[in-house]
Amino acid sequence: MPYAIRAEGLEKRFGETLALDGVSLAAEPGTVLGVLGPNGAGKTTTTRILATLTAPTAGRAEVGGYDVVAEAHRVRRLVGLTGQYAGVDEMLTGFENLLLLGRLVGMPRRAARARAAELLDRFRLTEAGERAAKTYSGGMRRRLDLAASLVARPRVLFLDEPTTGLDPRSRGDLWDVVRELTGDGVTVLLTTQYLEEADQLADDLVVIDRGRVIADGPPEQLKAQVGGQVLEVAPVRAADREAVARIVGELAGAAPEVGEALVSAPVSDPAVLTAVVRRLDDAGITVGEMSLRKASLDEVFLALTGHRAEETAATDEQETEEVPA
Ligand SMILES: Nc1ncnc2c1ncn2[C@@H]1O[C@H](COP(=O)(O)OP(=O)(O)OP(=O)(O)O)[C@@H](O)[C@H]1O
Ligand SMILES: [Mg+2]
Q: 210: CA distance to ligand 1 center in Å?
């Protein structure tokens, strides 16, 4: 089956900065491709190249079988993009914005009105639809952007962090919309900092760090690849936390993370669990809670990139120093 989105060796240079250093990825029609990576990894740059907003310095990409540079005009007819493309006019109402966009893509007036009303309803903006967009809250504005990107019924949709700043309910709404769209054969490329979102929606994931793809595959495969399970121990007495961390670290063979109540560490051999129980018992430490669970995508991300997904840029910088294993 031909890919709906396919990129090979994309490179993008901004002066001295090599923002993309050979990014390759592909998505089959009707699937969601999640693109993950820390701040500055190159997610937006990749998205913008695929949506024809900027040209790559080297490499090539096709969307719907069309070259994003040589056949950009054809690609533009197929794609929707949140934010940049939508071009919401602050002075117009939500309804007028969607109506205008429908008219711009050549819909007859009545069809454009119906589409606008349908999308306002879909994103719970029917009431607000009568007010100028400049009066919208951040989350409402974001929802209007999403609605705007859907007016023309794109076959391929690029969502660059679409749910950042949305409340849980609006986030759920968007997830539903994405699932509906893929059900109709639409292909979605989604960048996100929320790993739960990637886990929920993506058929395949690409993890980018510093302009390079460092891992790809279905979420389950990435989780299995990074080492399976996580041991968590919560001592009854907070004073025992350091001792627990020492024991867990020694037996798991990986530096444990010490949280408010829990000490946790990735383990590859489930037999570690019984060994830990024995050592804790010998040490006279009473345990309130102990469990072995599957690694979350968040831990996969940390293991791959050395950063947490939702870290701030400032924390990132402190952690770019090489830490001996
Ligand atoms: N127009 C530009 N001019 C110069 N450098 C740029 C430009 N756009 C992006 N960059 C640089 O390219 C790199 C990748 O940026 P990009 O915006 O693609 O990252 P991102 O993964 O989307 O990050 P974030 O999670 O913060 O949105 C960064 O180092 C960034 O500073
Ligand atoms: Mg970005």
A: 10
pTM of the complete model: 0.78
CA atoms within 13 A on the CB side of 49: 28
Verify whether ligand 1 is closer than 6 Å to residue 154 (CB atom).
Answer: no
Ligand 1 close to Cβ of residue 14 (< 6 A): yes
Residue nearest to atom 29 of ligand 1 (CA): 40
The pLDDT mean for the chain works out to 87
Q: Where are the alpha helices (DSSP H) in the chain?
A: 43-50, 72-78, 94-104, 109-122, 138-150, 168-183, 195-201, 219-225, 241-252, 272-282, 297-305, 313-318
- Please give the share of the chain, as a percent, with pLDDT higher than 70: 90
Q: Give, using CA atoms, the residue closest to atom 18 of ligand 1.
A: 42
**Residue appearing with tokens 């969307």:** 63
- Could you identify the atom of ligand 1 that is nearest to the CA of residue 12? 12
> How far is Cα 193 from Cα 163, in angstroms, rounded to an integer?
9
Q: Is the CB of 36 under 6 A from ligand 1?
A: no
- Look up tokens 């709404």; give the residue: 173
Closest residue (by CA) to atom 16 of ligand 1?
Answer: 42
Of the candidates 89, 148, 96, 156, the one whose C-alpha atom is nearest the C-alpha of residue 122 is: 148
Ligand 2 is an ion; its neighbours by CB within 5 Å are 43-44
276 lines ligand 1 (CB under 6 A): no
pLDDT higher than threshold 60 for residue 65: yes
Going from the N-terminus, what domains does the chain have, and what CATH number goes with each?
Answer: 5-223 (3.40.50.300), 227-294 (3.30.70.980)
324: pLDDT confidence band, cut at 50, 70 and 90?
very low
Closest residue by Cα to residue 288 from 249, 234, 240, 244? 234
Are 276 and 231 within 8 A, CB to CB?
A: yes
Distance between Cα 43 and ligand 1 center (Å): 8
Least confident window among 200-214, 256-270, 272-286: 256-270
